[in-house]
Design a protein that fits this description.
This protein is α+β, with helices and mostly antiparallel strands. It has 13 helices and 33 strands. α3 (about 125-145) crosses α5, α8 (about 265-280) runs antiparallel to α10 (about 335-360) and α10 packs across α11.
């Protein structure tokens, strides 16, 4: 287990991490006391839990009444008889709602048909906020009841508490923005700069790495300088991340391949089972029972399945229920083990192919794979991966317990230990720009329709992508990227604000410093906009004329931080030889459709 240093801060602080998963969620926290070694704890008591002593996770489920009020959450929403109560009172069940936040990629379109629609009149932010609020209240009660002077402890720490929220590797700034709004709505933080500064994000893959480090799982694997792959297999997504320990840098790690995310989690195994049952029972009187059989498969058969040579039986009815043609006898249906294995196969093959991609993308030998997440509890998934990856010389391991709390605990460790100091860019980032038209350049001549005359009377050509950060670059957290900007306006007042779109290229072509976007147009998309007030820049605007037209010029840089878990941007300019800075706002469009990689 990694040795943690005493907390060096001057004031007591509470750090809380919320892992809102597709199917199960958890809360972990740490009270930072100056001079004391921090200890990560999990919230293990929630209302409605049947298990004596509690558990670290609750189902990610809510029920709403017809007025949109929350009626039951978590284990309460899974209590015996709740479905009958919900039917009588016309409640609506909300589950798998996290997937409604997914990036709008074409390859994720199939998810739409698999997930449950949101309750009428509710947005995904509304539902996410209601669930966060419930988890926050449960954490408050747990801390108040389990710590000495818990009520006063909570009241003293609550106003300055910090939060870490986790999300799949494939989530981007637009999804982080939605979660931020949900956190404000839930009452975790106020909607101001100070409040927003108390909230940070970490990918589920990176949080899982922190969990593995803290539990000593990586000790042997990293001794030889080889890389490790983290497979976080959850309910909705499977996140693949690859790291190595930096040489001569203590506990510092760096990504060595761009992380990946796939919609192949455990709910899609159940979905495959449902599709199979629909087809099997098409001509049977039990077709309407297919959804119930699939639910029972999800809660029992999927978890205990181990042998494709052995048939499996799913009980769903009474002793009178039978249809031998489809394997139904005495109220239970018989499924071949090979058919059940086929439900898992897309997820298994996805992981194997992704691991191959990760190995090819990194320049470091990979020796070990660590399987965590709720889906990792499946013995069949673990057995198959261990067998297949052994043929590639890889050792597959998983924690012997609490695999489903890896992300929540790891998210707290991310905040207090901060092991990862460098990350790999998944895309090329840049801005759309223009350049001076070159009448001798064939590339310019063939695109003369992009030609225009600027305020300065110089012919320019548009349609270029200026590459600020190439795809696959390893970026340290402290590393900054600058892009000079020059604004020209006919009116001085037009220089008061600034907006620029940040674009990304998701394709595989090697881009030059400046490339025409029409060479691979599907792969370019707008990632976000950077907005800034530049009216306070005291450097006087330059005045120029062309054809008796006066125009004003102001010069500054946008400074980007791409190596953090969130994109940050600043405006920088020079006054009397001294650089000045002011923050810029990064704005995302969550509804933007982005091209597939």
């Amino acid at each position: 287990m990694s040795a943690r240093k005493p907390y060096g801060g001057s004031a007591r602080k509470l750090v809380m991490a919320f892992d809102v998963g597709t199917t199960f969620s958890g809360v972990s926290y740490c009270i930072l006391d100056p001079g004391a070694v921090p200890e990560i704890r999990g919230v293990t008591r929630f209302p409605g839990q049947a298990k004596v002593g509690g558990d670290s996770k609750i189902p990610t489920i809510l029920y709403y009444d017809q007025q949109g009020n929350v009626c039951a959450v978590g284990d309460e929403a899974n209590e015996e008889g709740i479905e009958q109560i919900a039917e009588e009172k016309e409640w609506t069940r909300a589950e798998w709602f996290k997937l409604h936040m997914r990036p709008k990629t074409k390859s994720a379109a199939h998810v739409t048909d698999k997930i449950v629609p949101l309750p009428k009149g509710k947005t995904v932010i509304d539902v996410f906020a209601d669930f966060l609020r419930y988890m926050y209240q449960c954490a408050q009660k747990y801390i108040e009841e389990t710590h000495a002077n818990g009520v006063s402890l909570w009241e003293n720490l609550r106003p300055t508490s910090e939060f870490v929220l986790t999300h799949p590797n494939g989530w981007e700034g637009a999804q982080q923005g939605m979660v931020r709004r949900a956190a404000v709505t839930a009452g975790l933080i106020p909607d101001n700069d100070a409040g927003q500064a108390r909230l940070s994000f970490v990918t589920e893959g990176e949080a899982s790495l922190h969990f593995c480090i803290q539990n000593g799982l990586t000790n042997e694997a990293i001794k030889t300088g080889k890389g490790i792959i983290i497979v976080d297999a959850g309910g909705g997504t499977i996140d693949i991340s690859t790291y190595k320990q930096k040489p001569n840098a203590g506990q510092a790690f760096e990504e060595i391949a761009a992380p990946q995310c796939f919609f192949k989690g455990s709910i899609f195994v159940t979905s495959n089972a449902k599709d199979f049952l629909d087809k099997l029972l098409q001509e049977s009187a039990y077709l309407d029972d297919a959804p119930d059989i699939a639910r029972r498969f999800d809660k029992t058969t999927k978890l205990r399945f181990r042998d494709p040579e052995e048939p499996q039986y799913i009980k769903f009815g009474s002793l009178k229920d039978k249809d031998p043609l489809v394997g139904i006898r005495s109220g239970q249906i018989r499924l071949n083990g090979s058919d059940i294995a086929s439900f898992f196969e897309p997820s298994i093959q996805c992981i194997i192919e992704s691991i191959k991609d990760q190995r090819n993308a990194s320049n470091t030998e990979i020796a070990s794979v660590f399987l965590v997440g709720g889906f990792a509890a499946s013995d069949w998934l673990f057995t198959k991966l261990k067998q297949d990856l052994a043929l590639q010389g890889l050792v597959v391991s998983r924690p012997d317990s609490h695999v489903n709390k890896a992300v929540a605990d790891g998210a707290v460790s991310f905040r207090i230990d901060h092991y990862v100091t460098a990350r790999v860019s998944k895309f090329a980032f840049g801005v759309n720009c223009c350049t001076e038209y070159d009448a001798k350049n064939p590339e310019h001549i063939s695109r003369s329709y992009y030609k225009f005359i600027g305020l300065d009377g110089i012919a320019k050509i548009d349609g270029l992508f200026s590459n600020i950060l190439p795809k696959g670059s390893t970026v340290n957290e402290t590393q900054e990227f600058r892009r000079p900007f020059l604004r020209k306006r006919r009116c001085r007042s037009g220089l008061g604000s600034f907006v620029v779109d940040i674009s990304c290229y998701r394709g595989n072509q090697i881009l030059e410093a400046e490339s025409f976007t029409d060479k691979d147009p599907r792969m370019f998309s707008t990632l976000c906009s950077v907005e800034a007030d530049i009216s306070h820049i005291e450097t006087p605007a330059k005045v120029a004329t062309h054809d008796f037209t006066v125009y004003y010029i102001i010069e500054f840089d946008i400074v980007f931080s791409f190596g953090l878990t969130e994109l940050k941007a600043f405006i920088a300019w020079e006054e009397n030889g001294v650089e000045k800075r002011s923050p810029a706002r990064v704005v995302y469009d969550p509804d933007a459709i982005i091209a597939d990689e």
